[in-house]
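Lecture 7 notes: from sequence to structure.
We start with the chain below.
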Amino acid sequence: MPSRRGPAPSPNARRRNTTHALGEHELAAASGEGRALPKALGIETSGAKRFWKTWSTAPQTQHWLETDWAELEITTRLVDSFYQGNVRLAGEIRQRVGRWGATTEDRARLRMDFNQQTEQEAAAAAQEATRDLDDELFKMLSE
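Predicted structure tokens for the same chain:
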């Protein structure tokens, strides 16, 4: 007979982790107009400008406070440096955007919920941005 660790489970046990401490985030279908890229940041690359536009209009931003916008400014500076050739920043950028729900996996972990229309719009926009990014990265790497 296999031995058990700890006490036997209660016959009427219930899961206590079915709700997240911060709750779930229902995100609106349409993304907003976002904020304009602050000129004081001194962003030079088109990739960083596109990054700002993508994130400033993302549905997640409807829940953002000023501190979140400040993080976007810092991250955009990192993205600008990345596009200028400092590829060591890729990991830091990925960690930062992961906290905002950049990928499907990140959004599941953060318990963000989009409706179907938003997902389709985001997929189409991502596909278009990916083509632009691929062209720009190819030019940068082939120099």
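Points to note: The chain has a mean pLDDT of 81. Residues 82 and 117 are 32 Å apart (CA to CA).
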